[in-house]
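DM from R.C. (forwarded with permission)

"hey, sorry to bug you on a friday — could you get me a structure for this? deadline for the figure draft is monday and I only need the backbone to look sensible"
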Amino acid sequence: MTSGAAMNSAGPAADEASLTDHLRYWAEHRPQQRSFSHVAFPDSSSGGLHRTLGWRALDARARAVAARLGTVASPGERAALVLPQGLDYVSGFLGCLYAGVIAVPLFGPELPGHGDRLAAVLADCEPACLLADSTAAGAIRDFVRDHRLPDVPVIPVDRLIAPRDGSGPDCYGRRSVSRPVSGPESGPQPRPEPDDIAYLQYTSGSTRSPAGVMISHANVVANARQALDAFVADPRTSTTVGWLPLFHDMGLVLSIAAPVVGGFPSVLMDPGDFLRDPSRWLRLLASYEGTISAAPNFAYDYCVARTAPQDVEELRLDRVRVLINGSEPVRAGTVERFREAFAPAGLDPTTHCPAYGLAEATVFVTASPLGEPLSAVACRADALAAGRIEETTADDGHAESAVLVSCGTPVGQELRIVGADGGVRPAGHVGEIQLRGPNIGLGYWKHAGLTAETFGFGAGEDWLRTGDLGALHEGRLLVTGRLKDVLVVDGRNHYPQDIEETVQSVVPLVRRDHLAAFGVTRPDAVGEELVVVAEHRRDADPTAQDIRVAERAVRAAVSARHGLRLGSLLLVPPGSVPRTSSGKVSRAATRKRFLDDGFGPR
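My reply, with the result:
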């Protein structure tokens, strides 16, 4: 039974059902079925400790959170989730929706390098309370005080519930159910309106300061259904397995919203556990039938680099159904390396699914059809720089080409490509990607001007301006880059990800996917020049001579492949290049640090 069929027979119509309507339905009709699991790895030798909730137990936990929220926050106020990845995060998020309180999915102050961002977001969203873990509550109170934020209640979600013998499986295979241990008994909750704000999805801040996208109850259910249409052939035999942070748009929708709407299990692990040993993720993918997961480019390359061939042979990846690559743009080389490395484990070459999305559209926009091989287009580099898609082959005589991976077609929404003049561009021409559909958010929290500029409300148009560049080719989307990242030199567009790929391919010292290319105003104030800041490998200690050799190699390669003059190359220690909270390199923050001499005197 699909989620739509289930809800049609359960009461509210499918197009009006909220996430909590779906949760309530599964709790009533499949109380003991596994809903969410969290796998922890307490040490390097651990095979994983599983904690699992059935649908009724999850519903009880969410209602316990809602009951407690009702004592400190009113509907429409905000509750910030500063919890670690796990079952309490899921319960806390769904509890906010039950209470009519706007959830703000965030992270705890222990996330390295993101304290200032956390403080800025808390100041912006003005939460009525913070949902936390009891072990971290003291540190969170200290963080609030140290950053001079308003003193609001800190609610330890893990202390709101306790197991007792009942109706659902717990982490040890016994049967348990959750019950509130504090606060009033949870009765019927007020049902939210479809256009009420469900949560604020703060953008990752890769090109600007984070802003909170207002996602309605209708938006998140619509996008969950779009995700089901794109990636889930049969919910009855599907399981999502995810390490992406739940405060990230893709992590939230793929690992929480889609499973709740579809009524199938979701398995969670901590992002740090993936980074310490990516084979943990691969083993979990192999542990369930019909697994669906997502990761950015760097994660697939990371799995290849950190998994020994003898370990690959122990995996059983023939059970994996879909591996979404949502980076923008997707790299064909990454897909091929991952396929070749894990083919001995039975990985179907058609499981890799390039996709495109962004927080302003809840997350999912386009996806390649399931079961189809990778579709990549080799384009003439000079034509692409001029804004055109012109295919080339090795026999054409064009020395340089750029390979673009198709991200498929829109799922339940409209897409168009618009030029700088505001006109819709024909197929094969690059312009800004614009969107329209039921998943498009309500705008930015407290940013009316930015909302009008980006979402187009009230201006006779309702198309979302994504800020991403792309083109339609044979009916499918090719993403070329971010509008704000593009370097324009002598009237030609240069995409930073292409330059970064050139740099890391010619300089072995550079850590893959730990570099940023950007433009700065030339000393003579005429146009821009190229700067590349790259981390060197952890096992390297480059000398002055090494740096000179690297710079000469980069200068020659960038000139030959891109027709650009390199202004400067900085090799910096590992961990120096700023990253967003979702793990992407932040070119905007790297450029600012460079201009502020944050990498040392230039």
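R.C.: lifesaver. The chain has 18 helices and 28 strands.
me: no worries. The first strand starts at residue 34 and ends at 40.
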